[in-house]
Amino acid sequence: MKMYKLAGEERFLLWAVCSIQLQVLCDKSGEKLLLLAEGLLKKHIASHSMHEPEALMVYISLLEQQSKYNDGLEVLSGDLGSLLMIEVDKLRIQGRLLARANDYSAAVDVYKKILELSPDDWECFLHYLGCLLEDDSIWKYFDNIDQIHPTKHIECKFSHLTEEMFDSRISSASDLVLKLQIDTENSNLRGPYLAGLEIEKRKFLFGKKNENKLLESLLQYFHKFGHLACYASDVEAYLHVLSPDKKTEFVGMLVKNSDSFSESATKVLGQTTTILKVQELTGNIFELPIDEIEASAVKLAKLYCQNLALSKDLDPQESMFGEELLSLISNMLVQLYWRTRNFGYLAEAIMVLELGLTIRGHVWQYKILLLHIYSYVGALPLAFERYKALDVKNILTETVSHHILRQMLESPMWVDLSNLLKDYLKFMDDHLRESADLTFLAYRHRNYSKVIEFVLFKQRLQHSNQYLATRVEASVLQLKQNADSIEEEERVLENLKSGFQLVELSDEIGSRTLRFNEDMETRPWWTPCPEKNYLLGPFEEISYCPKENEKKDREENMKLAIQRKSLLPRMIYLSIQCTSTALKESVETNGSKGDTKISGELECLLEEYTKMLGCSLSDAVEMITEISKGARTSESLGSNLVEWLNFAVFWNGWSLSSHEHWHVLNSLFERLILDRIRSMGSSDMSSCYSDVQVLVQIITEPLAWHSLIIQACTRSSLPSGKKKKKNHQQHSDQLSSSPMSQTIKDSIQSLCSTIQEVSNWIQNQLDNPEDDQVERFLSTLKRAEDATGGPGQILGVLENVIASSEEAEVGNRIFDALKSWNTADSARKTVMAQQRVFREFLQICESKRKQLETVKQQMSHV
Amino acid sequence: MVCIRRATVDDLLAMQACNLMCLPENYQMKYYLYHILSWPQLLYVAEDYNGRIVGYVLAKMEEESNECHGHITSLAVLRTHRKLGLATKLMTAAQAAMEQVYEAEYVSLHVRRSNRAAFNLYTETLGYKINDVEAKYYADGEDAYDMRKHLKGKQNHHHGHSHHHHGGGCCSGDAKAVETTQPADAKAVSK
C-alpha cells in the first residue's frame, strides 16, 4: 500500500488487493477487508481508470468473492470490459456472473452464444443446461475440486420444476443440440452427441421412464465413436445411472451390434476393446462364469496377435494397436485368481504383461499393473524396478508415488525406501522454498489472478496428506534403521528435537484439512487405494459404487494414522528417559518419585494415542491384556495390529516396574508372531506376503522399540563412567539380585526365541533351491493335454505367435522383441526378487537377535 | 467432448500426469510454473467432458531483435485422445492469444526431425514453414527443425492508451527469478 501511495502505480495497488483476497481465502475471515479492497480499486478507477485485463479480472473476482454479481456484470459491460480481448472469455465470465446472480434466462442466452461459437465446449453446455433447468448444483461441483480428476457425478435438482416446465425447457435444449449436431456434422466432434446423451440422462433422473431411449442413444454413440479409446470413459457417467439389468442388457446390445461393423481391422479392434472396457465399468464382468471369462481372454489374446502386424511401421514411441488388450486380459486373470485362488492365473498375468513390455517398453499401464501384482506376491524389488521405469519425478512424485510408497514402507528394503522418501521430500521442500520467487514472478508480470491461484496451489501441496505422512515416515525410518544401537538412536532423536517437532506436527494436523493430490484412477481395479486390496479378502462381486464416497473416511483415517505415527519418536524418547527413573526406583528402596514430569508426559501421549485408536487408555490396556492371555484373538485389533503393539511397548515403558506388564508384552509378541508363522506354515511367498509384511512391521517397529527400552534399562544399570566405579560392586549386586533384572532377562529370552522362530521360517524359505522354485512357478502355468480350462491358455496363444511369427509380417522391431522373450527368465526374476526380500528381512531379524544376545551377556556379567 | 480452456495452476497436477501417459517430459515443475505465472494467456488445456485433462499446450513469449514473437514449448495429447483434432485446437488457441494479447509477429517451435506425425501437423494443418535446422538440438543428438508461422501481429493495436506500458511491450518478463535449466524444445507428440 505504501508503495502505491508513493508511486501511484496500479500494480502496487493490485498487490495489496491480492494480499487481502488471499488473507480472506485462506483464513475464511476478515470479509470486511474485501470491502476495503473494493473501495480502493473504485477510487483508483475513478482517478486513473484501469489498464490491464488482469486488473479487471481481480476486480471482478473481488466482487464475486462478495457475491456482488450484478456489480460485476455492470463492470464487465462497461468501458473496462473492452480490456478483455478474447470474446469467448468475456462471455464465459458474463454467463457465470448471470448464473450466480440467478438471472437464469439471460445466462442461458449467453451460454447459447458460446455454444454457437464453440460447439464442443462441454463445460459451457453443462452450464447452459443448469441454467435452463434453474439448477445451481454445478457450481458446488466447480467450487469444490480437491482431486486431480474431478468427480464424474454432478447432482441434479429438479424439485422446483413442474413437469410441464421441465418438458418445455428440455425440448428447447434438444433443439439446440440437434442444431449443433447438424452444424458440426462433418467435423467429427463428440460434443453435440454427448450432449444428446446428457439430455436423456436428465430426463431419466427427472423420472421419465426413458431407460430404453437412453440405451438407444448410448448405442448410437457407440456406432459413431465406439472404436475410439475414449468411448468408455465418455459414457461412464451414463452407465452409472442405469439399473444392473439394463447395464447387462446394454453390454448385450454392444456385442450384438459390433459384429455388423467390420469394415476395417482397426475399427473392429477399437470396438472390441471398448466393449470389454464397458464390461469392466459396469461390473458385468464379475457376474460372468469362469469359463466364459477364460474364453473371452483367449479371444482377446488372439485378437492382439492377429493385429500385431498393424503396428509394424509405427514409431517406437507410438501406441500400438491393441495395446490395451493385454491390460484387459491381465485384469481378467487377476479376477480369475481372486475367484479360484489358483496362483497360475496370477503367474499368467505377470507373463502376459511382461511379454507386452518386451514388445512395447513404454506402456505405463503394463508397468503399473505389474508393480501391483509383484507387490502382492512379495517380489518387491521387481515392483520397485517397474515403478522406477515409470520415470516418476517432479510433481508426479506427489501424484503417482502412492503406487509403491505403502508397500515400501512395510518392507525391509530400507535403502530403496530411504531414497524414495528423500527424492519426494526434496521435490516438495524445494518447491515450497522456491514459491516466494515464483509468486514474485507472477506479480512482476502483473498476472494477479495467477498469484492467487499459485498461493492456493502451494497450500494444496503444503497440506498434502502424503507430504505430511512422508515427513513423519522419513523420521521413523531413521529410527528403525538405527534401533540396534541406543547411542545412534539417541543421536537421531536429538536431531528430531527429542521427537518434539513431530508432536507439534500432530497437533497441527488435528485442525487442518488434509489435501489429497494422488491420482488414484491409474490404480488397478483390485486395489483402488493404497489401504485397500480386494485380493486379500474372499471373492465378492464388486458393486461399482462411486469411489468418492470413500474419500471422507479416508481423510479421517489418514489423519489419525499420521498423528499416531508422529507421536512415536517422542514416546521412544520418553520411554528411554523413564528407564533410569524406573531402575532407581527398583533399587533404592526409599525411592523418590523420580522424574514425574517425564512419566506424566508419556502418560498423556499414551492417552492421546489410544484415543486415536478409538478407545480409552484403560480399555486399551484391558484389550492387550486379554489378547496376551488368549482371552481374545488378535483379530480384534483389526488392521491396526502394529500400532496396538506400539502402544503396548510404550505402556510397558511407562510402567517398567510392573513385572506383570513385562509379561503381558512378552506374551503379546510371542502370540502375535507365532500365530502368523503358524498360519503361513510352509506356503510360499506368493500366497503369504501380506503376513510377511505384518511380521516385518512388528519386528522393525514395536519389537525394535522394546529392545531399545531394554538396552536403556541395561545401560542405566551398568556403570557408565569412572565416577560410578566405586559404587559398581554394590550397585550391581543390588541389580542382579533385584527382581527387575530377572524380568528384563526373561523378556530378552522370550524375544530372542520369538525372533529365532521368524529367522527359522525365513531360512526354510531360503533353503528351497531357486531352480525348484522357478520350476514350481512354471508348473502353475502348465496344462494337461486334455484340460479344458485353467491357467496357461493365454500364454499358450501368445507363445504360439512367438514361435510362428515372421519378420516380414510384424516388422523387425516386434520380431526381435518376440524372439528375445523367455518365460522361464521372467519366472526366475520373480523368484529372485522374492528371495531378496527374505534375505533383507533375515538380516534385520538376525541383527536384532544378536543385539539382544549381547545385552543378555552384559547383564549376566553384572 | 472437449473444452479448450486456459490452464489454471491446479491443472499442473493433471498436466504432468499427461506426461506419464504420453512421453516422458524432462521439464521440471518450476518450468511449467514459470510459463503459467509469466504468460498465463498462452497455456491451454483440453479438458474432456468428465473433467479430465487430456492435452495441453505450453507456450511463451520471446523477444529477439525487437521482433516480438511467441514460442511453443510443449504440446501433448493423451494417446486415448489422439486423432480428434485436439492438437490443432490447442495450437490455434495459443496462437490466437499470442496474436491478440501480445501482438506477436510470428510463432516459432522446434520439432524432432523424426517426428513425422507432428511435422505433418505443423506444416499441413497449421501452416508452419521450416526456418532452419538445428543440428543435435535434442539431448539424444537428434536434429530439430526450427519452424515458424507468421501472425498478423500489430494490426489491431489495443494498447494505445496505456500509459505505463512496460519494457518492450509484449514481453515484460525475464526468466532470471526462476532458473530454468532445460532447453525449450517443443516436443510435439500429437498426431
UniProtKB/TrEMBL annotation, chain A:
Transmembrane segments: none annotated. Residues 469-496 form a coiled coil. SUPFAM superfamilies: TPR-like. Keywords: Coiled coil, TPR repeat. Signal peptide: none annotated. Residues 732-741 have a biased composition (Polar residues). TPR repeats lie at residues 88-121. Residues 718-741 are annotated as: Disordered. InterPro entries: NAA25_NatB_aux_su, TPR-like_helical_dom_sf, TPR_rpt. Belongs to the MDM20/NAA25 family. PANTHER family: N-ALPHA-ACETYLTRANSFERASE 25, NATB AUXILIARY SUBUNIT, N-TERMINAL ACETYLTRANSFERASE-RELATED. This is Phagocyte signaling-impaired protein-like isoform X2. It comes from Camelina sativa. The gene is LOC104735588.
Automatic annotation (TrEMBL), chain B:
Residues 152-174 are annotated as: Disordered. Keywords: Acyltransferase, Transferase. Belongs to the acetyltransferase family. ARD1 subfamily. Residues 2-152 form the N-acetyltransferase domain. InterPro entries: Acyl_CoA_acyltransferase (IPR016181), Ard1-like (IPR045047), GNAT_dom (IPR000182). Residues 152-167 have a biased composition (Basic residues). PANTHER family: N-TERMINAL ACETYLTRANSFERASE, N-TERMINAL AMINO-ACID N(ALPHA)-ACETYLTRANSFERASE NATA. It comes from the Eukaryota. Pfam families: Acetyltransf_1. PROSITE patterns: GNAT (PS51186). This is N-alpha-acetyltransferase daf-31-like.
